[in-house]
Amino acid sequence: MTRIQANLLLLLAAAIWGGGFVAQSTAMDHLEANWFNALRFGIAAIVLAPFALIEAKRSPTPLSSRDIKNFIIIGVLLFAAQTAQQFGLKTTTVTNASFLTGLYVVIVPVMAVLFLKQRPHWIIWPAALTALIGIFLLSGGSISALSVGDGLTIVCAGFFAVQILLTGRIIQGLSRPLALAGIQFAVTALLCTLAAALLEPITLANIENSLTQILYGGLLSSGLAFSLQIIGQRYTSSSQAAIFMSSEALFGALLGALILHESLPPSGYFGCALMFLAMLAVELVPEWGKSRALDS
């Protein structure tokens, strides 16, 4: 798989996650967030299990205890990110949350340099800043005074950044993407179930009224999109992956306007253009540099 194909897979994952914002928004009318996450990640783990077993039978080497430990850590990071974001939303605005969650687009390359000693292509830095400005404009071009919820959302962005970096590092030398996805889903589902059982009520009617959204979240937003992320990250850098995955804010805003009839501010369209420009830049500039080097 080429880097361009991998980044297109990440873009598709972001589009599915954008639709997931709509599913989660409407599901919250009947179901609390932890139960929604527990059910959707549980479905994803169950559906993916047969494919992960087929992958295991075809693999020449079994997973090591270190591999399984790393997969569990990634699952814990995903749970932590989802939980921090949800509790943050209780005391912050959706505008603040969407912008602050998108901070991982700049946290990832910074952490790659500081902790992994990786030097991303120079275009990553202006592209990450451009994408962040795009998310800011997409959310209305303003944020209110920072609150405790904003702090939790920044923590959420940090967890997502570590999850992206660790996934990229582990999957580069491992041909078991479905095993990673399945264990990640199972861990997240288990922890969300424990949190939900302690904190949130639930009835069968709640589940029935949210079944369409649960199935979308389980089969597409969790099962398919996170698997696409893992596969795509085998063939591209974590910094590039973060930029393409951050476009979920773009798809979420567009699908929210289309399906939920939410209004997109005029600045939002400029934000969409900036995010599209950032994605084009990280694809075209490195290739342009290679072609110039070959011509010289």
From TrEMBL:
Segments forming domain EamA: 6-139, 152-281
Keyword Ubl conjugation annotated: no
Gene Ontology annotations for the cellular component aspect, listed alphabetically: plasma membrane
Keyword Membrane: yes
Membrane-topology annotation of the record: Multi-pass membrane protein
Localization: Cell membrane
Matching Pfam families: EamA
Main location: membrane
Alphabetical list of InterPro entries matching this protein: Diverse_Substrate_Transporter, EamA_dom, EmrE-like
Keywords tagged on the record: Cell membrane, Membrane, Transmembrane, Transmembrane helix
Entry's transmembrane regions: 39-56, 68-85, 97-116, 123-146, 152-171, 178-199, 211-231, 243-261, 267-285
Protein name as annotated: Drug/metabolite transporter (DMT)-like permease
Organism: Allorhizobium taibaishanense
Organism phylogeny: Bacteria, Pseudomonadati, Pseudomonadota, Alphaproteobacteria, Hyphomicrobiales
